[in-house]
Amino acid sequence: MIQSIGFIGGGNIAEAIIGGLKKADTHFQIRVSNRSNLERLQNLVDTYAISASNLDDIVENSRVIIIAVKPKDVLGVVKQLKNYKLSDKLIISVAAGVALKVFYKHLPDVAVIRAMPNTSTAVLHSMTGLVRGDNVTDEQVKMAEEIFSATGHIMWIPEEKMNALISISGSGPAYFYLFAESLIKAGVHLGLSEAEAEVLVLETLVGAGKMIAESDKSPGRLREEVTSPNGTTYAALNVFTDDQLALTVLKATQACAQRAEDLEGENSD
Length: 269
Ligand SMILES: NC(=O)c1ccc[n+]([C@@H]2O[C@H](COP(=O)([O-])OP(=O)(O)OC[C@H]3O[C@@H](n4cnc5c(N)ncnc54)[C@H](OP(=O)(O)O)[C@@H]3O)[C@@H](O)[C@H]2O)c1
Fold this sequence. Notes:
Elements: E1 4-8, H1 12-23, E2 29-33, H2 38-48, E3 51-52, H3 55-61, E4 64-67, H4 71-81, E5 90-93, H5 100-106, E6 111-116, E7 126-132, H6 138-150, E8 152-156, H7 162-170, H8 172-189, H9 194-214, H10 219-225, H11 232-242, H12 245-266
Parallel strand pairs: 1-2, 1-4, 2-3, 4-5, 5-6, 7-8
Antiparallel strand pairs: 6-7
Helix pairs in contact: 7-12, 8-9
Residues 8-14, 33-37, 68-71, 73, 76-77, 94-96, 116-119, 170 line the site of NADP nicotinamide-adenine-dinucleotide phosphate (NAP).
């Protein structure tokens, strides 16, 4: 049982995780600190009944410390953490593009796990990738699982697969949001009102997601089953194929993984 979690950084992903943990009715004591945005911190306190905190308090009173700052700010936080005794702590970094070796260099004996959730933690449907650092005990593995299983699914991976995972599930929600936006615009173009198009797209997206999740058929099989030769869906899918949707998706995910790798270079000191 963990009991206490401290977030260094109270931005979007911290809020998504905290919102999920509260929604899942977990009973962790949660502390959060920000660099300077006290209004945002107060908002988190009011919304989720957690405590606003600072680094001293977080380190002293949290068994698990989650680093949820932008990649470029991680090193600064790690250097601050050097001043504390962390031997009984688990550090979880959710930052993209900051490798474990950065933590090993500055905090050599500390237990660190890299985690890559997505913002669907807020609705308990995150897909979180986890990488186990060298000093992490089995008990600490269970702690990380306790947190991220409460907000969705988890997958343990070796660190060399982290950037691929970021390009699929970490950034993935945004791809589906973009597709939904494009479909709404197309609906309006075809004569629907924006409100009508929005309902049609959102319900279709949720329904398709549930079909993929709940049926034992692959997405490809489900697609085939709704595509009669020379029918209406067939006409639409032909355009996606002719315009090389699969290639565009491949290029987009490659760009994402490359950006994560570049960030590792920028944040490797
Ligand atoms: N957003 C996502 O979908 C997502 C998914 C998975 C992982 N991530 C990772 O999560 C991390 C944060 O992303 P985000 O979107 O949540 O960013 P964000 O909304 O900009 O939040 C970052 C927060 O960190 C705080 N901060 C910066 N330096 C600090 C310090 N030294 N001490 C305490 N707090 C500090 C900032 O506080 P101030 O505002 O006061 O400066 C801000 O609240 C990134 O590394 C990203 O790779 C994000």
